[in-house]
Amino acid sequence: MLDTLPLLNKIIFPAIHRKAINILQVNLGYRCNQQCLHCHVNAGPNRREEMSLEVLSNVLEFVRRHQIKTVDLTGGAPEMHPHFVFLLEALRQLDVKIIVRCNLTILNEPGYEHLAQSFVDNNVEVVASMPCYLEENVNNQRGGGVFDRSIKALKKLNSLGYAHSDLSLVLNLVYNPQGASLSPDQVKLESDYKQFLADNYDIYFNQLFTITNVPVKRFGSMLLSKNEFTPYMELLKSAFQSVNLDGLMCRYHLSIDWQGYIYDCDFNQMLDLALMHQGKKMHISDANLAQLSNKEIIVAGHCYACTAGKGSSCGGTLS
Question: 179-202 b/e with 16+ CB inside 10 Å = b?
Fold first, then answer.
């Protein structure tokens, strides 16, 4: 796989500093039942990295000690972690908001069919990957048959009460561009999604998040192999909006990898740009928020993906 980091490190990005941390994003491992073209994690069925019980305990203790308000679980497919339901229940007992980054198809895989009910039981906010509402585009990006399996999963979530106006179960969808381009207007696209999915499949959701593809790992390697890396970076840089700097997710949350090491964001995690303390990678077992507040964030050229146009974060556009 081609590495974009040497090129990204040559690109200057404005210096930014961390603010008050209120979200912990935890990557439980890189194993996934899918292998999507736009994946910045290089996740797939053959990955074996997963968080140990010891590190899971470190995460829970960090959340408890620092009274973290939101824990955002991601992967790979985080649901494939063998202690996933235990983690949901433990976080629920700590009274934190739980977000799960779900690829949808995992909810109907053999052995995982019970997970949708676990979402309900623990009041999980589901953020589900649905990069388009058209079958051909989804299958081209995520693999044959993924669209139909995603529709089936969305119907299951709706049947359990997700996105019902009288319930608190939140279901948000995520749009990713098909390739080296910026996302369209999020508000307009959300309206199109809602109308199409309701009219054609009787499916409902709360919000749509548009997230720009970041030039790291599998997506970055694809750009290099097609000689599209430089044009894409020029597009991102030309669309830079300084107003988006204040809302960047790295300023308000920390990213934890499957080994327990701490990063400014999930993208830095994939580039192995870890936070350091006394010459070593900072680990969640011995970190505290006082060490981290107001510190400078590690930046490089890939950060332009988050500031281009209306901005991009794990919660959609920034402006």
Answer: bbebbeebeebbeebbeebeeeee
Q: What is the pTM of this model?
A: 0.94
Contacts 24+ apart (CB under 8 A), 157-162: 157/107, 157/116, 157/119, 157/126, 157/128, 158/202, 158/203, 158/204, 160/116, 160/117, 160/119, 160/120, 161/120, 162/119, 162/120, 162/126, 162/205
Beta bridge partners of 29: 50
Place of tokens 């934190």: 96
Contact 307, 240 (CB under 8 A): yes
Tokens in use for 227? 């000689």
The secondary structure element, H or E, covering residue 186 is helix 186-201
Q: What is the helix (H) or strand (E) element at residue 269, kind and residue range? A: helix 266-270
Structure token pair of residue 70 = 């939101």
| Per-residue pLDDT tens digits for 281-294 | 999 999 888 888 88
CA dihedral 194, 197, 199, 205 (to 10 degrees): -50
210 and 316 in contact (C-beta within 8 Å)? yes
Q: Which CATH class is domain 5-307?
A: alpha beta
In degrees and rounded to multiples of 5, residue 273 shows phi and psi of: -100, 70
d(CA 212, CA 127): 15
- How far apart CA 240 and CA 22 sit, in angstroms, is 26
**Which residue bears the tokens 């011995």?**
286
pLDDT band at 144 (very low <50, low <70, confident <90, very high): confident
Q: Per-residue DSSP letters for 229-265?
A: HHHHHHHHHHTB-GGGGGG-GGGTEEEE-TTSBEESS
List the one residue out of 271, 171, 263, 259 whose CA is nearest residue 216. Answer: 271
Does residue 164 contact residue 205 with C-beta atoms inside 8 Å?
no
DSSP letter for 274, please.
Answer: B
Spatial contact of 88 and 60, defined as CB atoms under 8 Å apart: no
How many residues in total does the chain contain?
Answer: 319
